Amino acid sequence: MKQKLIKLSKTLERLGHPEEAKRINRLIRLGLDQSKIIAYHGGSELEGDSFSFEYSKTGEGYSALGPGIYFSDNEILARRYCKYSKDPIIYTVSIDSSGLYDPISGEPKKFRQPMQELLESTIKTQDPYRGVNRLIHGPGSIGAIFKALGPEEGRQVLKNIGITGAIEELPSGAHEIAIYDLSTIQIISKTKCILE
User: Fold this and answer.
1) The pTM is what?
2) Residue 151 — very low, low, confident or very high, per pLDDT cuts 50/70/90?
3) Cα dist from 63 to 21, 33, 49, 91, whole Å
4) Domains of the chain: which residue ranges?
5) Average pLDDT in the 5-14 region?
6) For the ranges 111-115, 121-125, 174-178, which has the lowest average pLDDT?
7) φ and ψ at 100, to 5 degrees?
8) Which among 33, 1, 34, 56 has a CA at the least distance from the CA of 180?
9) Bridge partner list, 169
10) CB-based contacts of 37, cutoff 8 Å, min separation 6
């Protein structure tokens, strides 16, 4: 992760954003917490420099990992979402990864039992996955929770068992990340997103 930050700092300096580069260099000097992921978000400029669920589903309109704020650990992938905004910005953020759950693999294992108990206590049907649309609700158990409870309550009950977001490895090796708990996001920098 340190190498990614060094590269980002040099890129920002080269693009004429010295203040943003200084901010990143401060992070490097402070040392990096191994439970953090550096990720990127392409979209409109945020009001008050904080993310909000108010604008979720304004990109492609899908919620492949459930209703959250979406990031990628691959900047090129995140830049693809800039096309949905009038004056796009690319945000570089640090995400606390300790509460990220992969609903496809069920990893980390520490979330399997709490997730199973949540499903059993929340959804009283024989098949909790019936009617779950992966592109609307999200995959697997995450999707079942969001279908049954809706976005706000679903995010809250997942947060109560320690799940703050979902992560999925894409075929390219990059990761898509949906965050359900906004307190796990720290903005490192923002730059104008140049569409190619």
Assistant:
1) 0.79
2) very high
3) 32, 29, 23, 20
4) 2-98+184-192, 101-167
5) 82
6) 121-125
7) -85, 135
8) 56
9) 175
10) 1, 73, 94, 95, 97, 100, 175, 177
